Amino acid sequence: MESSVSFKNINRIAIPAIIAGIAEPLISLTDIAVIGNVEKNSVEALAAAGIVGSFLSAIIWIVAQTKTAISAIVSQHLGANRLHAVKTLIPQTIYFNFAFSLVIYATTAFFAEAIFSAYNAEGLILQYSEDYYQIRALGYPLTLVTFAIFGVFRGLQNTLWAMKCSLVGAAVNVGLDFLLVYGIDGLIPPMHLKGAAYASLAAQGTMLVMALWFFFKKTPFHLKLSLNINPRLKGLLLMAANLFVRTAALNFAIYLANAYATDYGKNYIAAQSILMNIWLFFSFFIDGYANAGNAIGGKLLGARDYKNLWELSKKISKYAVLIAFILMAVCGLLYNEIGLVFNKDTAVLAIFSSVFWIVLLMQPVNAIAFMFDGIFKGLGEAKYLRNLLLVATFLGFTPALLISDYFGLQLYGIWIAFFVWMLIRSAGLVIKFRRKYLQKEV
């Protein structure tokens, strides 16, 4: 019988998860690349897309933590051969996500001007941000329901279905971006930034329809809502709440970075938009192995197989660091060409190129942090993840950013602060895991 922590089994989960994971940031990168090359007001439009993209990511990451929680619970019950115990939990979680998404839409869509003013956006950038967000916000219910279903898939040790949904969604987004942003003479008028928003909305709808098809056809679960609350729902929501707080702190760091970059000027926030979206792309790329750690780790915990849990941590860390070095090498070879994909403004490109090396240098540290992040989520260690992120954000990132700003380091300071942030996160996770699970392995 093949070991659950074999190279083949880890990559059976990780590789589709990588492809599925990069599809989401690829949508934002495509938007930025297409918008950044529109001749009229490209810098302002690029800045607006970056600000809104960061805010959307923040909200979705925060409220989609039920995806991680349901994945951990399903994988643990799968390892214990008790899937029947969570059959009513799945629809309750999915409907909860849907209801919560409507609340998020109602509390943000009508206050878009105030929200993006808090990012220091003004004038044309603020106007573009409002217009773009009003359309993109319609996708909250689509995305959050899709993510909950993806969590079920991952808990069942299957990331292939999510990969297929994400790839088709990304293809729809890319095709419609060019069609709606630039338009077709005599047929479709160019919609510029709004066209990119509608393209993203169509992609999200496509992914949801496909996810529902796989859910009904391939899983043992259903969407029939039981009025008897599953006893595990409280634990799931508590885990999600801890991850909610954790992700809120994470996105506070991203918000603070973008607010400072906006305050430095439109060229700085335009360059920061490119840097941040590339960083997120790398993060989701490496996160495929974290997803494998999440799914397999939860299953091993359910089976109380601590020996293989330790082996899992070593193997996926090695694979993820290797991926990080490959990404660094590729981007190092194409260092001067990458910025040109997103914008042609020489001032923006000069700022981007001067800072991009820091983003590359931190990738191996990111890989370790993301790996253990995924394993800890699968083990249900949400409270520790919450506390560590709060420490990293408010005792690491924020002081580093304030000190860097005082010395006028601008975007250099923002990314030095991110580097400090990731060092604290990775060190805290490795130390905790060794102390808690190494002794159980023997």
UniProtKB/TrEMBL annotation:
<feature type="transmembrane region" description="Helical">
    <location>
        <begin position="316"/>
        <end position="335"/>
    </location>
</feature>
<dbReference type="InterPro" id="IPR048279">
    <property type="entry name" value="MdtK-like"/>
</dbReference>
<keyword id="KW-0812">Transmembrane</keyword>
<protein>
    <recommendedName>
        <fullName>Multidrug-efflux transporter</fullName>
    </recommendedName>
</protein>
<keyword id="KW-0406">Ion transport</keyword>
<feature type="transmembrane region" description="Helical">
    <location>
        <begin position="347"/>
        <end position="372"/>
    </location>
</feature>
<feature type="transmembrane region" description="Helical">
    <location>
        <begin position="94"/>
        <end position="112"/>
    </location>
</feature>
<keyword id="KW-0472">Membrane</keyword>
<feature type="transmembrane region" description="Helical">
    <location>
        <begin position="132"/>
        <end position="153"/>
    </location>
</feature>
<feature type="transmembrane region" description="Helical">
    <location>
        <begin position="409"/>
        <end position="431"/>
    </location>
</feature>
<feature type="transmembrane region" description="Helical">
    <location>
        <begin position="45"/>
        <end position="64"/>
    </location>
</feature>
<keyword id="KW-1003">Cell membrane</keyword>
<dbReference type="InterPro" id="IPR044644">
    <property type="entry name" value="DinF-like"/>
</dbReference>
<feature type="transmembrane region" description="Helical">
    <location>
        <begin position="12"/>
        <end position="33"/>
    </location>
</feature>
<keyword id="KW-0050">Antiport</keyword>
<dbReference type="InterPro" id="IPR050222">
    <property type="entry name" value="MATE_MdtK"/>
</dbReference>
<dbReference type="Pfam" id="PF01554">
    <property type="entry name" value="MatE"/>
</dbReference>
<feature type="transmembrane region" description="Helical">
    <location>
        <begin position="196"/>
        <end position="216"/>
    </location>
</feature>
<feature type="transmembrane region" description="Helical">
    <location>
        <begin position="269"/>
        <end position="290"/>
    </location>
</feature>
<feature type="transmembrane region" description="Helical">
    <location>
        <begin position="236"/>
        <end position="257"/>
    </location>
</feature>
<feature type="transmembrane region" description="Helical">
    <location>
        <begin position="165"/>
        <end position="184"/>
    </location>
</feature>
<feature type="transmembrane region" description="Helical">
    <location>
        <begin position="384"/>
        <end position="403"/>
    </location>
</feature>
<keyword id="KW-0813">Transport</keyword>
<comment type="similarity">
    <text>Belongs to the multi antimicrobial extrusion (MATE) (TC 2.A.66.1) family.</text>
</comment>
<dbReference type="InterPro" id="IPR002528">
    <property type="entry name" value="MATE_fam"/>
</dbReference>
<keyword id="KW-1133">Transmembrane helix</keyword>
